[in-house]
Amino acid sequence: MKVFLVLAHPESQSLNGSLATYAAKVLEDAGHEVKVSDLYAMKFKAVVDGDDFQEYNEQEKMKWADVLILHFPLWWYGMPAILKGWVDRVYAGGFAYWVGEYTPTHQSDRFGEGNMAGKRAMCMVTVGGKAENYSARGIAGPIDDLLWPINHGILYYPGYDVLPPFVTFDTFPGHVPPERWEKICADMKERLLTLDTTEPIAYRKQNFGDYTMPGLELKPGLEQPGETGFAIHTQKAPPANTAA
Questions:
Q1: How many domains, the chain?
Q2: What is the CATH number for 138?
Q3: pLDDT, tens only, 10-26
Q4: Would residue 117 count as lying in a domain?
Q5: pLDDT tens digit string along 208-235?
Q6: Domain span at residue 170?
C-alpha cells in the first residue's frame, strides 16, 4: 500500500514525533511505501489567501496514497491550527470532493462519495487526559464525539473509508515511561499492519436513501431506540437472532 502520513507537532522529539517516526518505520518494514509531511518542519503555510489558495504538492500526495493518516495531539478539543490550515489549503472543491450534479435523489458527491472514494483514512491522536475523562460520562465528552468533525466532516466528506482512530490517552506532560512506550508501540503496530483489513466506521452515505432530499435529515425510524446525537449517523448491525 501507499501511505501518506501528515504530522502536526512542533517538536520532532516529542511523543507525537517519535510515534510518527515509529509508524513510518513499521509500514516501510512491512513493504509499504510511505510519504510523510511534517508540517512544522516544512514550515507549512497554513493561512489561505488570494495569492496561494491551494497546496498542489500535498494534493499530489493525497492522490498517490491508498491511505491517509493524520497524526496530531488533541489541542483544545481539536487539531492544531497548522493541520486545520493544511485541510483548508489542500481540500478544495474539484479535488478532495466533487460537487457534481443535483437531482431529486442525488445531492452532490460527498459523505461516502467523492474523489477519495476507495481510499482509507484514520486519525492517530495523543490526548493529555485520562481515558475516563473522554468516556461517555467523562467531563471532557466522548472522544468519538470530539473527533466527529474530523472523522466525518473532513475524512468521510470526500469519500474516504474512515477507520476507527488510534488514540493514546494520559500523555501529559508529553512523555511516557519505557514500559508504556513499548505497549503503545505494540498496539500501534497492530493497527498499522491491519490498515487494509480493519472495518471502517459505518457512516451512512448521503445519497443512498437514508436521508431526505433536499433537506438531508436522517429519515425517521433508522436510529436505534433512544439514540441521539452523532451516533444516529452511523449504521448499526441488526441484533443477532437468539430465537431457539
A1: 1
A2: 3.40.50.360
A3: 988 889 999 999 999 99
A4: yes
A5: 888 888 888 999 988 888 888 898 899 9
A6: 2-198
